[in-house]
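Whiteboard transcription, Tuesday session. T.W. wrote the structure tokens on the left side:
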């Protein structure tokens, strides 16, 4: 799995970008949000966070100007009936914060106004993602405050998640260790949480 690509922007259209890295041009599908951010940038050097989709007939790359947009994309494609193309249309129709707000508040009408999203799909998105987007919005809000403690907790939780532990168990363990001492480093927080998992 690729995390990101950094290189020279060779081609940019509202639907895709070609990024040259180490002499190879990568065709990357993008949303209008990412297109807007890339086209407003003065530099030809870009960094895109990637999501790779492996199919029988192709390996497809999706690129995002920031990690939060990629995370929202991944949440959307986790919903039954929402594929990568539909998720990209959703991210092109609404910016990430508006889309997150619509899901978190259960605003089915806003979701239904997006091309390709019917009433049942909009309702399924709200049911499946409401709690997750509320948590993501809370984490994003905490990140905006710049609290180092919240940053340490998020980093530790992300590392444990990457190790394959269940998210609910991670949150409990990290919270328990964090309550004992909220001035811990990421490493000590992970070690303490591992003892409880």
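and on the right, the sequence the group agreed on:
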């Amino acid at each position: 799995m690729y995390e990101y690509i950094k290189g020279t922007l060779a081609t940019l259209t509202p639907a895709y970008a070609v990024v040259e890295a180490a002499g190879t041009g990568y065709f990357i599908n993008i949303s209008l949000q990412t297109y807007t951010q890339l086209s407003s940038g003065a530099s030809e050097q870009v960094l895109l966070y990637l999501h790779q989709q492996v199919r029988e007939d192709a390996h497809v790359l999706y690129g995002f100007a920031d990690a939060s947009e990629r995370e929202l994309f991944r949440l959307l494609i986790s919903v039954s009936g929402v594929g990568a193309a539909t998720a990209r249309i959703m991210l092109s129709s609404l910016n990430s914060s508006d889309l997150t707000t619509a899901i978190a508040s259960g605003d089915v009408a806003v979701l239904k106004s997006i091309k390709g999203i019917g009433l049942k799909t909009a309702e399924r998105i709200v049911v499946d993602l409401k709690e997750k987007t509320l948590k993501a919005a809370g984490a994003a809000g905490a990140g905006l405050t710049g609290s180092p403690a919240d940053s340490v907790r998020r980093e530790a939780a992300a590392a444990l998640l990457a190790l394959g532990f269940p998210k609910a168990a991670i949150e409990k363990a990290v919270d328990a260790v964090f309550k004992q001492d909220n001035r811990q480093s990421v490493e000590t927080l992970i070690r303490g949480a591992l003892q409880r998992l």
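Someone added at the bottom: Strands lie at 4-12, 16-21, 24-30, 45-54, 59-64.
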